[in-house]
What does this fold into?
Amino acid sequence: MRYRTLVLVGLTPLLASRALAQNLAPAKSTVTATKVITFRPAAPTGPHQRGNCWTDSIAVDRPGAWRCMVVNSIYDPCFTNPKLKTAVVCDAEPVTNKPGFVLELTKPLPEPRSKRLPDKLPWLLKLADGSTCEVSTGTTAFVNGVTIPYGCSDSQKCNDDGCPYMTGVTEHLKRGKVWIVDKVAFRSTKTGMELLKRETMPVVAVWQ
It folds into this structure.
């Protein structure tokens, strides 16, 4: 998934703090119910690629979701599609309606896991402030004793002066009619990770 980034190069600490407050302002809209969506992408048109899937998806914990590779690039999740007998759909993304591509399998799909994880973290979250947050399938941030498995789209892009701040969602998801999450802003310093801001945030939609 590609995210838009906010670049604030050369700002003074005061201006950077104001920019942080503006970009991470509390949501103005009211969420009355969180949509929980099982994502099943259509078979896209366009060029096919070739590769293989060697295990279940780390991002999506359900049957028909896979972790796949094309040359040296990993795609997770990829999805089975009833119209594709020996292929899966990779790199599809529901927030921006990105169709992805068809991956022609060079090997049969592996046997899926027989057991699913209870309360598995969902793949994508759309928050009431407009940001989208995706669960990590690699390294997970750990800040001030808090695990942050999601990275969000309003993180700032790193530049020559460092990483002004990053945003994410903690592992503490409160499920209900309206899902509530803890959204945080943090940054990397010479002495480690520093937590800048933490607030509760309603969730507009969940994809799994």
Remarks:
- The two ends are 15 Å apart (CA to CA).
- Residues 143 and 191 are 12 Å apart (CA to CA).
